Amino acid sequence: MRNQLVRMAREGTLDTFLDELSDPEIAYLLGSWEFAARIDQLPPACGQGGGPWSTWAVIGGRGAGKTRTGAEWVRGLALGLPGFAMAPTTRIALIGETLNDVRDVMIEGVSGLLSIHAPDEMPRWEPSRKKLTWPNGVIAQAFSAEDPNSLRGPQFEAAWCDELAKWRKAEETWDMLQFGLRLGSHPRQIITTTPRPTPLLKRLLQDPSTCITRAATTANAANLSDKFMQKVLTAYGGTRLGRQELQGEMIEDVVGALWTRQMLEDARAANPANLVKIVVAVDPPASSGKRADACGIVGAGIDAGGTIHVLADASLAQARPAQWAQAAAALYHKLEADLLVAEVNQGGEMVERVLREVDAGLPVKMVRATRGKYLRAAPVAQLYEQGRVRHCGPFPALEDELCSFCPDGLPNGKSPDRMDALVWAITALALAGNAAEPRVRQV
User: Fold this and answer.
1) Nearest residue to 277 (alpha-carbon basis) of 429, 99, 404
2) What would you report as the CA-atom Rg of the chain, rounded to the nearest whole angstrom?
3) Could you tell me the CA-to-CA distances from 324 to 128, 188, 280, 321, 428 in Å, in that order?
4) pTM, whole model, 2 decimals?
5) Of 232, 239, 257, 195, whose CA–CA distance to 57 is shortest?
6) Which of 128, 197, 201, 360 is positioned for an S-S bond with 252, CB 3.0–4.6 A?
């Protein structure tokens, strides 16, 4: 239906088609899941490996429509609807974190199975037997991931696994389910979950027979409270928790990295009231053009108690010298900074000259790295561990670099320019006078 409507829209015949529909036909169209669903909510054609999929992983933020997607898929299977199944799927497993979750969310919830069926197709729910039965004889059974052994014995053609990333006994429950998915010509399962870096979910997302669709909370904003959206985006936008729970990103720590995600979450703070010194640090790229590194530009300040506050990340990608110099000067004035620190290992006198051309009155301190990036960054990471650094706002790109930087550099091989700028700023504020820490000296 959706493809037909899209084709008519392209051909200019959609208005004529809609004008000819009766009120009941329009009501049916508006109530059709195929018409109302987003593309990411409809069953995919194939898995990551190009062949038929065995697992459909619906990864999304809170309120992104995951439950509705799972419920509509089960409905489509039970009724044998085109695009879902060639014929009704006889036996289906419904598995949640607990039996209460299966009942309250997957079955009786606002987007659950009992809310999406027309009266003539409504399944009969028997809570005591933990069973749904459709008028055509299809049966769905409810199971808890807290009791993997309850899946021993029953057999299914399909399964809906909700919030798998929260299952306490995920591996055991998943294994028992796989033994039970043995009916029909092509047993399948759908996972609807907000992602967490659990071993099982990570393994499933890498499986070629898994098809993955993703959606952020904002994709379903039309069906959510405006106040809710404003509240959560203001409070959590850009944070680790927000990226996981709202954007549906899988956020995990890199083994050997100097910073961890939890370390940065613990560093969250409101904007400071009194800072005794503010610094803007610049890590200029060695060249310009499409293949050039980014220019790290970070502002930070220190209060009277010695706590450092990261205030801004104004870094630029593939910027020409005049562009990054203007951005650095603009941040200096915006923060009413006391000093601009610029590394000159790559640019030498050119760095100072470019900055002076943009603003001759800038108090620029040119610094040269005498130790490797990891050794320079380690004392700064230690300040985070000691609780002496605060992030006054979310800085997703900067924080990604911090939590990915290892002794061998970033996993993607790129230069950690944002991290370098942060290290220079914090070093200038808190470590420059300590001979045991990275040396920052006039050039």
Assistant:
1) 429
2) 28
3) 67, 52, 13, 5, 20
4) 0.65
5) 195
6) 197
Q: Are residues 149 and 269 in the same domain?
A: no
Task: Calculate the alpha carbon distances from 292 to 107, 316, 414 in Å.
Answer: 53, 11, 10
10-residue mean pLDDT profile of the chain (443 residues): values are: 62 75 74 84 80 93 95 97 92 97 97 95 97 98 96 96 94 97 95 91 93 94 92 81 86 84 86 90 77 87 95 90 93 96 74 87 87 90 94 89 88 88 96 46 34
Decide if 357 contacts 204 (C-beta within 8 A): no
What is the rounded end-to-end Cα distance, in angstroms, of the chain?
Answer: 69
Tell whether 278 and 212 lie within a shared domain.
no
The domain containing residue 330 runs over which residues? 261-431
Q: In whole angstroms, give the CA distance from residue 150 to residue 133.
A: 19
Tokens of 133: 């039965």
At residue 399, φ and ψ (nearest 5 deg) are: -70, -35
CB 343 within 8 A of CB 367: yes
Domain stop point among 174, 206, 224 = 224
Same-domain check for residues 202 and 272: no
Q: Which tokens in the block code for residue 171?
A: 């591996």
Indicate whether 175 and 304 sit together in one domain. no
Kind and range of the H or E element at 158? Answer: strand 158-162
Task: Enumerate the H helices of 102-169 as residue ranges.
Answer: 113-116
Which amino acid does the sequence have at 101? D
Other CB atoms within 10 A of residue 131 CB? 15
Q: Assess whether 313 and 215 both reside in one domain.
A: no
Tell me what pLDDT residue 8 has: 64
Flag whether 246 is in a domain. Answer: no
